[in-house]
Amino acid sequence: xxxxxxxxxxxxxxxxxxxxxxxxxxxxxxxxxxxxxxxxxxxxxxxxxxxxxxxxxxxxxxxxxxxxxxxxxxxxxxxxxxxxxxxxxxxxxxxxxxxxxxxxxxxxxxxxxxxxxxxxxxxxxxxxxxxxxxxxxxxxxxxxxxxxxxxxxxxxxxxxxxxxxxxxxxxxxxxxxxxxxxxxxxxxxxxxxxxxxxxxxxxxxxxxxxxxxxxxxxxxxxxxxxxxxxxxxxxx
Length: 236
Known about the structure:
40% of the residues lie in helices and 13% in strands. By secondary structure, it is an alpha+beta fold. The strands form 2 sheets. It has a 5-stranded antiparallel β-sheet with strand order 4-5-3-6-7, covered by helices on one side. The protein has a two-stranded antiparallel sheet with strand order 1-2. The protein is globular and about 55 Å long. The mean pLDDT is 88.
């Protein structure tokens, strides 16, 4: 498929060239496995990957902090993906506090469902801003680290976009309900939607839930964390 004239990749190349003067040609083949509008940072991670590649092929013209600062000109979420790992993000996306999680070595298992709904991030923010009293919960780094060490069934985390998007898209609500019924310890929506996920502490429980859910959801994946921080391994 043809990329639109304005996209994250061309923006990343343009901003890198503007700052560094790099004018070398580069051919990019993009295999788009993360659907757009899924709340999984697909476009942002594409842009971050290209920035890191450009910095490598140019001989490391920018330091890590310089590359992260440049990434903020490409998109709000791009600095997070340039850095990688886990972290608490604030500001416009440029303030990143790395998380070093106790018990981070424990494996967690996830079932991820994309309900084939495109959720526009700007539209999600407009919905949020239009709410008279939206529910908001904030967690600093220390609180996040403390809660993460608990069993997922005790996690208090909350996605403020979830009730807005699930009310607007019945498929998102149905996917959330299906994950809760599957026995997941914690269920939530990813980002501004529309992907949803359930967290399991046992691989057998995750695989059993996946087997049942995959019968009704075409884009359904079982995933295992490789450590307390990304990356993850797709089991199926």
